[in-house]
Amino acid sequence: MRPASVKEYVAIARPDNWIKNLFMFPGMLFALSIFHTPFSLELVVKIVIGLASICLIASANYVINEYLDAGFDKYHPLKNTRSSVITIINPKILYSEYLVLAVIGILLAYFVSSKFLFTASFLLIMGIIYNVKPFRSKDRVFLDVLSESVNNPIRFAAGWFIFSPALGIPNSKWDLNWINTFPPVSIIIAYWMGGAFLMATKRFAEFRLIDNPHVAGLYRKSFKIYTENSLLVSMFFYAITCAFFMGIFLVKDRIELLVSFPFFALLFSWYLRIGLLNDSPVQGSEKLYTRKWFMLYLVLFTMLLCGLMFIDIPWLHWFLKNANNY
């Protein structure tokens, strides 16, 4: 094999996957609707710096992920063409790349807020827990999905902390003003479980694509225990749990979003349908973009959520207030 080129070291950082950091956008939107953060040049700068920080830290995680997974990815029918598999990666260059991306990402996070810095650091730590021994949670059944999908609520919180008030350290554990600048636990869990549903569906599609339990186990150790049935059951568990905590959030924090619930259910159902296809596009975001009608629906659904975050619907409040009377 030939040594990796500069272009391939850049590819290992997967800048094409920065699109996933749009998961920060709902956090920004929810925080904006609650705190009514005024738009200013300072806020715009914080948004740009925050996005750059999370993108660089995500790339740092991708760098170690691809390098440490090279011996496993060669068994995957799609990932066996990755740079780390078909070229010789210099460990010194790779770890230098990781450190540069991680350090710059953390330094940028410092200029947003202390809470954003904590969130960005947590994202970096989760990359280590997911990829590096002795933790390497990606090898552990079910924990692989849960530990990877936790990056979704981390991104949500990062977006939230860009818009939330930058209060200092609380004077005591009862300082509610400081606590109230954090996102509701219900939406964090819902976001986590929603991401777990997406990730379990991806695992299901990968397992079916490989179509050989032995080879699947060589590619991903958790596949030695997973079956199609166990993955399918876990997908339903994550979806139901997501819906439960989403319902709590809707009733307590933004009842107008209740209007979106049937469209939310359709989104999950449609994604599940795509996940059940042979050679399913859910195995990679670049393939999912080929489902044009699904992507159009996703855009329209996002627009609906944006509208419902800022449009008040009085009769829904009346319904919630009087529901206990019936």
Automatic annotation (TrEMBL):
Highest taxon listed in the record's lineage: Bacteria
UniProt KW keywords: Cell membrane, Membrane, Transferase, Transmembrane, Transmembrane helix
Ranges that cross the membrane: 21-37, 43-64, 85-110, 182-200, 230-251, 257-274, 294-316
Gene Ontology cellular-component terms listed: membrane
Subcellular location: Membrane
Entry membrane topology: Multi-pass membrane protein
GO function term, MF aspect, one: transferase activity, transferring alkyl or aryl (other than methyl) groups
Name the UniProt record assigns to this protein: Prenyltransferase
Organism expressing this protein natively: Pedobacter yonginense
